């Protein structure tokens, strides 16, 4: 580029003959005349077409890439592995040529998705009182001097980002019902829609697309609180990304400072107070206000929860003289007692029948 600029200055400005320019530059007269006649500002060189050693294997490699794109990320073959498979078929070229072809193929696929609209994601935006998100997490705590593993229920309003945590020993129906009931109490109401993953306590069977066979007891809960249950696609955590992020943040910022507690009720009371304190301190990610201030503006848009949902299931059984329970439902005998869960958490635990003498 610099040499071409010098040639143009010598000929057009200084009026040097082509023979003198040839002597100074060492270029042929035909080359100098070509640049001057075309009035080129930037030199262009014609690259000769050279056949690549990968050309006979291009169709095979492209077919492999299409198949690998349909597999899960963990099961895909790497570019190094694809090069080894091509070598086994007779390819004697370099790995760099194969890697360059794969990069070009992925770039073309990305451009095609952008053109057709596939692969374009729209950020989720919610109206006040529109939706809440729910998910389970797993953490450890010291209860009554013992370190126990707990299942933590996370509930979060999608608009104000107000969240609440409650810990339970298991992820049973009754503990799920109690977690949502307590969450609606703390949040001050019920949104019109709930976003869940496909947990077994809510979904009995996953159909094609968004088709779900919802559990009858969970359906009764949703009908009681009048919210519409929406279930994410399998392995699509981004559809409820707010609560997924809350599970991570709570593990880093809340559970690391966790003291010891006498029982699970004291832990849940501490978690509730800590969440309310976070509402006052944390800024909303989109609005220039705290979470507590945004939640106060969203609260009038929430539905009134009404009476708590009764999660108990009562069954009548006949007891024989040998203390065997028969399936025929006639009456409830007085010697039958109901016991709650093994940890005193105050939740609506699944009632279990226990015989007493």
UniProtKB/TrEMBL annotation:
Belongs to the transposase IS21/IS408/IS1162 family. GO terms for molecular function: DNA binding. It comes from the Bacteria. Residues 3-65 form the HTH IS21-type domain. InterPro entries: HTH_IS21_transposase_type, Integrase_cat-core. The keyword Zinc-finger does not apply. One of its GO terms (biological process) is DNA integration. NCBIfam families: transpos_IS21. It comes from Acetobacter senegalensis. The keyword DNA-binding applies. Keywords: DNA recombination, DNA-binding, Transposition. PROSITE patterns: HTH_IS21, INTEGRASE. Residues 124-316 form the Integrase catalytic domain. This is Integrase catalytic region.
